[in-house]
Write a structure and sequence with these properties.
alpha/beta, five-stranded parallel β-sheet, FAD/NAD(P)-binding domain, binds nicotinamide-adenine-dinucleotide, binds flavin-adenine dinucleotide, 28% strand
Length: 403
């Protein structure tokens, strides 16, 4: 009898949790499992703000996929997924086609630019190892070049961060530590550097605890960050950005513009013809696509509703990992027989780092700020390594400088 073919797309948080749990749920003869990922490494998306600022080397944020999967049970294909043909039950990759009986889409997110002119061309994003390396090097080059220009140009040392959501705030926290280092390295007076955060909503970290927002903003302002709240980026140009507040517009010249103002699901999901909202598919409680019961979609490509407030849950690694565990159980039920379970997120909290030694957050219902929050953030980071790769991976890649 032919074994069912399970194909998992993406080796991020959702994909790796699915595969590592699936090999525990299914025996060798139960199914053929294939994992497809663009690179031979997994990166911790949740640490990319550090690699992008240059406060943590990108190699610390990634590890080899073969080190955490059971290679005798999982066929790992390093390839770029190009399209999904859900009618023919096929995936087209840069390395050829794969047919499936069950598909798990865990391809993560891409920046949402809301059609704002110039962002795709001129702004940087915090999306993967390549973009992080590029941004880190670009910022450093501006500092290295500043004193060599015949006429010093203040815009070289102006960094604009679009969006004061969690990504924007965490990146600003890293810049708060990195900029003094760069100034020292390149003989620059820190007064010449401007870090500007532009946020369209009436507050930073919209929806978060007001006391913690105040703490985060005061802390970052103390590190030299200027906030322009209630101000939207309208356009990005080779020279900088155009912002708008009420009826006024202003140009800010900046050599570095970082777009951290939201994400959408991987375009492959939209292109495959799944019904979606900004690339995210509203999945059934068992995490399958309502019209395609052989396809599971998880992580940033999925949309699940928080019934308490009737709004989508924000896409997080926390949810992607929990979804991976549920999908593994549900695939095992489909292959071996049994009933499928409904996914229920267990939100343990949210902590945003403000550089290496500070943070704000709510964990297990308790508000935290300062070094305690920062220690909690590192525990969360280590836990995610543990969940995928056990104690060995924590020892290899974990964060242990708690205070
Ligand atoms: P990902 O983990 O992003 O993985 C997607 C995988 O698919 C990657 O390996 C990618 O290489 C691969 N891939 C993409 N396209 C293709 C293709 N075409 N072909 C083949 N492979 C492909 N969430 C939290 O819960 N806590 C946090 O503290 C937190 N911090 C964050 C900090 C930053 C800077 C950012 C940007 C996000 C943060 N998030 C956090 C959100 C979290 O990172 C995402 O929700 C999470 O990564 C989603 O997991 P995923 O499995 O859907 O996708
Ligand atoms: P987000 O959508 O959470 O925040 C984007 C911010 O950009 C919002 O505050 C929005 O008002 C603002 N914005 C949108 N358009 C703008 C414009 N034209 N000009 C200026 N500001 C604009 O996106 P994110 O911060 O990238 O986070 C993405 C997901 O990842 C979220 O679900 C978030 O919870 C998660 N995340 C979590 C953590 C953490 O838990 N520590 C860290 C980073 C990201």
């Amino acid at each position: 009898m032919n074994k069912p073919k399970i194909v998992v797309l993406g080796a991020g948080y959702g994909g790796l949790m699915t595969v590592t749990r699936l090999t525990k749920q299914l025996g060798t003869n139960d199914a053929d499992i294939t994992l497809v990922n663009k690179h031979n490494y997994h990166y911790e998306t949740t640490w990319l703000h550090e690699a992008s600022a240059g406060t943590l080397h990108h190699d610390r944020c990634r590890y080899q996929i073969k080190d955490v999967i059971n290679s005798s049970r999982v066929n790992f294909v390093q390839a770029t997924v190009e399209s999904i043909d859900k009618e023919a039950k096929k995936v087209v990759t840069s390395d050829g086609e794969l047919s499936y009986d069950y598909l798990v889409v865990a391809l993560g997110a891409v920046p949402e630019t809301f059609g704002i002119a110039g962002l795709k061309e001129y702004a940087f994003s915090i999306s993967n190892i390549n973009s992080a390396r590029q941004l880190r090097e670009h910022i450093e080059l501006q500092f290295a070049t500043y004193n060599t220009d015949a006429e010093k140009r203040p815009e070289r040392l102006t960094i604009v961060v679009g969006g004061a959501g969690f990504t924007g705030i965490e990146f600003l926290g890293e810049l708060g530590n990195r900029v003094p280092e760069l100034c020292k390295e390149y003989d620059i007076d820190q007064k010449d550097v401007r870090i500007i955060c532009v946020e369209a909503a009436p507050t930073a970290l919209p929806g978060f605890d007001p006391e913690l927002i105040d703490y985060a903003m005061n802390y970052l302002q103390g590190k030299g960050v200027e906030f322009k709240i209630g101000t939207a980026i309208k356009e990005c140009t080779p020279e900088g950005i155009i912002v708008g507040k009420d009826d006024d517009t202003e140009e800010i010249k900046a050599a570095t513009v970082v777009w951290a103002a939201g994400v959408r699901g991987n375009p492959i999901v939209e292109e495959a013809g799944f019904e979606n909202m900004r690339g995210r598919v509203k999945v059934s409680p068992d995490l399958r696509v309502p019209e395609n019961d052989d396809v599971f979609i998880i992580g940033d490509c999925s949309l699940i509703i928080n019934e308490e407030i009737n709004r989508p849950y924000p896409p997080t690694a926390q949810i992607a990992m929990q979804q991976g565990e549920t999908v593994a159980k549900n695939l095992a039920a489909l292959v071996k027989g049994g009933s499928l379970e409904s996914f229920k997120p267990d939100i343990k909290g949210t902590v945003a780092s403000l550089g290496e030694h500070d943070a704000v957050g709510v964990a297990f219902g308790k508000k935290l700020q300062g070094t305690k929050a920062s220690a909690m953030k590192k525990i969360i980071d280590n836990r995610s390594l543990f969940m995928v790769g056990g104690p060995g991976l924590v020892l290899k890649k974990g964060k242990f400088k708690f205070f």
